[in-house]
Design a protein that fits this description.
The protein is of the alpha+beta class. The protein has one domain (11-249): Alpha-Beta Plaits, CATH 3.30.70.20. Helices cover 25% and strands 16% of the residues. The chain has helices at residues 10-31, 71-80, 121-125, 151-155, 189-192, 199-206, 223-230; strands spanning 56-61, 94-100, 107-113, 131-133, 139-141, 162-163, 182-183, 212-216, 233-234, 246-249. The strands form 4 sheets. The chain has a 4-stranded mixed β-sheet. Helix 2 packs across helix 6 (199-206). The protein starts with 9 loop residues before the first helix and ends with a strand.
Length: 251
């Protein structure tokens, strides 16, 4: 038995890597012929400018988030081809959570999705490197190398990831998905890389709530950075020290 702590048997490591790489490539073809999953994320056009100088994030103002409104959830489903929750197996990348303060009885509504942590537990536990964090802070899953072990789902404290149980049809060209893989909110990376905002942000604005602000957390002049500086905000499960890219105001 080889000791993996010391690198294992190098004579078998290379063939094994080649086998895994070939299997992943074939899986990619089976999932979506002609499409390279998350080619935006790996430095191909149009994401060549991805840099650690930028950190994309969201600020959600729960005082402006209306109870019963599902504009952000519906927009996410349309944009990413997730279906509309009519089946138990339908994925949900963003969900509305209703909160009630015990003492006052005050209720609030807040959307919860992948928090795009600076120190993501899903990346730490992934055995293949399929879960990864881009230089600009967006956390993604490379479905070419995802083996469906679901360790990341167990590690995520926000219950933000879904597993694809069934074969998929009528997929969106910019958001290829695959049976047997894990997925979650991508901050609409295909839109962000083209200079647009995530679909949920636009939908919230169109519904005249404007509860979600998207922008560069590293830019002190950006709207999101300015509001976080000037107002009291928090991170969900801040005690875990994950440094989330999604912040909340009004909780």
């Amino acid at each position: 038995m080889t000791d993996r702590r010391h690198g294992g048997d190098k004579s078998t490591a290379l063939p094994r890597r080649r086998f895994i790489g070939a299997a992943a490539a074939l899986a990619g073809v089976a999932i979506a012929p002609g499409l390279m999953l998350f080619e935006f994320a790996r430095g191909d056009a149009p994401a060549k400018g991805v840099s650690g100088k930028v950190r994309w994030g969201m600020l959600i103002d729960t005082t402006r988030c209306a109870n019963g409104c599902t504009a952000c959830v519906d927009a996410c489903r349309r944009e990413n081809g997730l279906g509309f929750g009519t089946r138990p197996t339908d994925a949900q990348w963003i969900r509305k959570v209703e909160l009630k303060e015990v003492k006052s009885g005050r209720t609030q509504s807040a959307p919860v999705m992948c928090q795009h942590c600076a120190h993501p537990p899903c990346v730490d536990v992934c055995p293949t490197g399929a879960s990864f964090r881009r230089a600009d802070g967006i956390v993604l899953v490379d479905r070419h190398t995802c083996i469906g072990c679901r360790y990341c789902m167990m590690a995520c404290p926000y219950k933000a990831r879904s597993f694809v149980h069934e074969n998929l049809t009528d997929q969106k060209p910019d958001v290829p998905r695959g049976k047997g893989t894990v997925e979650a909110c991508t901050l609409c990376v295909h839109r962000v890389d083209r200079g647009r905002e995530p679909a949920c942000v636009e939908a919230c604005r169109a519904a005249r709530h404007e509860a979600i602000v998207f922008g560069d957390l590293n830019d002190p002049a950006s709207t999101i950075a300015r509001r976080i500086r000037e107002r009291t905000t928090l991170q969900l499960r801040a005690d875990l020290r994950l440094d989330t890219g999604v912040r909340y105001q009004g909780l």
